[in-house]
Specification:
The protein has about 200 residues and is an all-alpha fold. It has one domain: Tetracycline Repressor, domain 2 (Orthogonal Bundle). Helix content is about 70%, strand content about 0%. The chain contains ten helices and no strands. Helix 1 packs across helix 6 and helix 4 runs parallel beside helix 7. About 35% of the residues are buried. The C terminus is likely disordered.
């Protein structure tokens, strides 16, 4: 799967073949086809493994952060950006190339995106109009966060995500806690060190 991530990140999903994966991984065709029907299935397995690991780490960060919801959400974003920056090849394979890898991969991406909804939805309780916020708010925010990462990954600047953290925190928090609190938490987040582990 590591070979798949590196090849797909460098060449794109469409220009990566099973043969290239087999050669890069230094395994036999029989070994590859024992585990995967094709390159799409291999990328999907990579995506599922990585998204599961990232989701578990983000839940851990959320639960361990002692502050209020806004600080928990900011800590999750800081960790997400640090994880993406720490392994840009895998991040690009999962967040960029998965989108063009076929219906199963796209469905897995959409399902992973929806798993952010419950954590974000908790912020509605902090807004007096929380029950009247748009039903699509959480999906829009999660999509926006991943779009920020997508843009940096396609130009090879995953290392610049940390610089975009304050404005991303502000974007995520503002509908829930208002501008003043969002700006305050974003400023505090900017001075915090990333937590990639």
């Amino acid at each position: 799967m590591r070979a798949t991530a590196e090849l797909v990140a460098k060449r794109g999903f469409q220009d990566t073949t099973s043969e290239l994966i087999v050669r890069r991984a230094r395994v036999g065709y029989a070994t590859f086809y024992k585990h995967f029907a094709d390159k799409e299935e291999c990328l999907l397995a990579l995506f599922e493994e990585v998204s599961g690991r990232v989701e578990a780490r983000l839940r851990e960060v959320y639960e361990q952060e002692p502050g209020p919801w806004s600080q928990k959400a900011a800590a999750v974003l800081r960790t997400l950006f640090a994880l993406i920056s720490s392994d840009p090849a895998v991040a690009k394979a999962c967040l960029v190339e998965t989108l063009s890898a076929g219906p199963a991969a796209l469905a897995a991406y959409e399902a992973a995106l929806k798993r952010f909804d419950p954590m974000l939805r908790l912020g509605r309780g902090l807004n007096p109009r929380g029950d009247r916020l748009p039903a699509t708010l959480e999906a829009t925010i999660a999509g926006g966060v991943l779009w920020v990462a997508y843009q940096r990954l396609i130009v090879g600047e995953a290392d610049k995500l940390e610089q975009l953290l304050p404005e991303t925190v502000e974007f995520v928090l503002m509908p829930y806690v208002g501008e003043e609190e969002a700006v305050r938490v974003a400023a505090a987040t900017a001075s915090s060190a990333p937590e990639p582990a």
